[in-house]
Description:
Helices cover 36% and strands 19% of the residues.
Amino acid sequence: xxxxxxxxxxxxxxxxxxxxxxxxxxxxxxxxxxxxxxxxxxxxxxxxxxxxxxxxxxxxxxxxxxxxxxxxxxxxxxxxxxxxxxxxxxxxxxxxxxxxxxxxxxxxxxxxxxxxxxxxxxxxxxxxxxxxxxxxxxxxxxxxxxxxxxxxxxxxxxxxxxxxxxxxxxxxxxxxxxxxxxxxxxxxxxxxxxxxxxxxxxxxxxxxxxxxxxxxxxxxxxxxxxxxxxxxxxxxxxxxxxx
Length: 243
């Protein structure tokens, strides 16, 4: 841990839509470069960084399931999509000057390392960014759950959920002007209120292992950096009582 930063090692969870352009789908190189800039700001603080990214910009399994596709097949397609996003993000971050490794839960040695916990930790220790692709490697689990699982395996200090909203609210603040904003929540409250933060499996895993979740607006200028420096940003979810 540096003298400035609050955390030594973090796991950043991004949705696939973070890579999508104005059209809402696909991979936009400009967005990848924007993410890379923020990642390199984190690296400049001396923080060890791992990333899990979804695949909603490329494939939504729910769409296939609604048309009769087998759930497992739809989920595996989504896992492959996360690897495509991971490779795009790797390229952008490396062009920004950081060293990156992609590890996939689904073996594809030509494009990514297989996920090996101890190797991932070693990459982090020597200053590389590690991007975890392929979800958990199993159908029926979301990339939120993959993020919580990998964060615990690499002994991260916090899971940071990067979104388009500045905090957790009890309703969509874009459509509900009087939506209540939370600066702090307990895991139980987040589960009981069924807030659209992370899925219930991911929150439960974090609760059982006392791993805090910080939800913030990834695109707000300096929001991520300020959070890592210990300033009050977004919504913190942990074992404490709701403030």
